[in-house]
Amino acid sequence: MSLDVDAKKVLLRKIPHGLFVCGVREGDEVNGFTASWVTQGSFEPPLVVMGVRADSTSHGIIERTKRFSLNMLKADQKDLAAVFFKPQKGLGGRFDAAPFQDGPLGLPLLDGVIGGVECELVGQIQHGDHTVFVGEVKTAQLLEDGEALTMASTGWNYGG
Ligand SMILES: Cc1cc2nc3c(=O)[nH]c(=O)nc-3n(C[C@H](O)[C@H](O)[C@H](O)COP(=O)(O)O)c2cc1C
């Protein structure tokens, strides 16, 4: 039985996604990237699950530091999400496109977004070109509640 790759692509793209900026820090090095393969995995403890490209800079940092942040973007922040398609180094509390604060765990939490959570890594599945990281939500900062940016609203695709 062979996989129908065209059908697989159409079907997997039906999985709805949000768009987030994942933040990482290793010493003075701060990095951020757009992540869409994100979902909740448990109420208690509160877990999030995120698929991260195995060859990305942030992947190595998450493995070594065992923590990451997730920033929830507002519905009108498509341009901000696009900036983080490319590696974004943060310096002095600022990425090129946006300022951030260090959260209690030392991870970048963007200003001007809905808010963000900081997670400690509690598990990972390394198989294929992305690693599935499981993070326990340790801190949560709500700046301004509102509608969140979704992949569907952008016309972009990451998946299939
Ligand atoms: C719409 C969109 C969604 C993306 N979602 C993810 C994702 O869920 N996981 C991931 O690892 N990369 C995702 N990427 C790719 C990363 O944003 C990109 O590889 C980033 O440059 C990695 O940065 P780094 O190498 O500095 O860690 C996505 C890209 C786009 C265009």
Automatic annotation (TrEMBL):
Residues 12-158 form the Flavin reductase like domain. One of its GO terms (molecular function) is riboflavin reductase (NADPH) activity. Pfam families: Flavin_Reduct (PF01613). InterPro entries: Flavin_Rdtase-like_dom (IPR002563), NADH-dep_flavin_reductase (IPR050268), Split_barrel_FMN-bd (IPR012349). Keywords: Oxidoreductase. The keyword Oxidoreductase applies. The keyword Ribonucleoprotein does not apply. Gene3D superfamilies: Electron Transport, Fmn-binding Protein, Chain A. PANTHER family: FLAVIN REDUCTASE, FLAVIN-DEPENDENT MONOOXYGENASE, REDUCTASE SUBUNIT HSAB. Belongs to the non-flavoprotein flavin reductase family. This is Flavin reductase like domain-containing protein. It comes from Parasynechococcus marenigrum (strain WH8102). The lineage of its organism: Bacteria, Bacillati, Cyanobacteriota, Cyanophyceae, Synechococcales.
